[in-house]
């Protein structure tokens, strides 16, 4: 985790769950994470929509130049990445896994900024499935908030079982999806569990992402 806000939110979520798969939505106290609220959000699953913004922080809305509440999370991403984003979200919603992603936000002038995205499951009920998330710029550029991000390109993806995996081990590299297609022989040698992903050690890697140039 490269941004301290990501680390803080994960640590807070991990404390709240206290050994359970995930904490409940009503256990989240905004005052406890007020310093990070501008970059946090809550997604909910509604019908066939895998994730719609129920709440979105002011910093996140400003980065995209619009109110995100009620909009589709998938719509933030370029078309090529949306299939993988949907699978990542289903894994978080259904399997109570943590997802840590990096992505590049691009504005209409072609300027880019690198972001770190965290998706954390919340305990599901018969009526709802929600997750808590955050998005923080690794290094905040001067133009962010003045020139809206018009598209997001997915970079690295980690799917982590918080009950098994030491999440902060430095010898656990993320899978760079920009190079995915150039290492097909390596993937072929890995195990292929059900659920649309392959396992590398303790990492579950989902297909998709950028095509190699």
Q: What's the gist of this structure?
A:
The chain has four helices and nine strands. It is an alpha+beta fold and 213 residues long. The strands form two sheets. A seven-stranded antiparallel β-sheet has the order 2-1-5-4-3-6-7, sandwiched between helices.
Describe the structure.
- The protein is an alpha+beta fold and 213 residues long.
- It has one domain: PAS domain (Beta-Lactamase), CATH 3.30.450.
- The protein is 20% helix and 31% strand.
- It is built from four helices and nine strands; from the N terminus they run αββααβββββαββ.
- It has helices at 4-17, 58-64, 79-95, 184-188, and strands at residues 40-46, 49-56, 98-107, 112-121, 130-137, 149-160, 175-176, 197-200, 203-206.
- Strands 2-1-5-4-3-6-7 form a seven-stranded antiparallel beta sheet, sandwiched between helices. It has a two-stranded antiparallel sheet with strand order 8-9.
- Strand 1 (40-46) and strand 2 form a beta hairpin.
- The longest helix is centred in the middle third of the chain and has 17 residues, at 79-95.
